[in-house]
Amino acid sequence: MRTESQIKRKMIELQMQKQSAEERLAEIKRTSPEDEAAIRRITGEITQLEDKITLLEWVINPPTGSYHV
Predict the structure, then answer these.
(1) Is 64 contained in some domain?
(2) Coiled-coil intervals in this record (predicted)?
């Protein structure tokens, strides 16, 4: 089991990776907007990083309430 500080460090690492990917995406859109494959690849990478960050946030701050209505 990971400690809370380890999970937070991983979240920070993933957030930095996401920021880097967003910067690459902005650069490609600026310099090569016709490169749709690269844009899709980086957009997919950003989505995956966001999903990972969300999962770690749930570990740190689990949702409350009922899952069934």
Answers:
(1) no
(2) 4-31
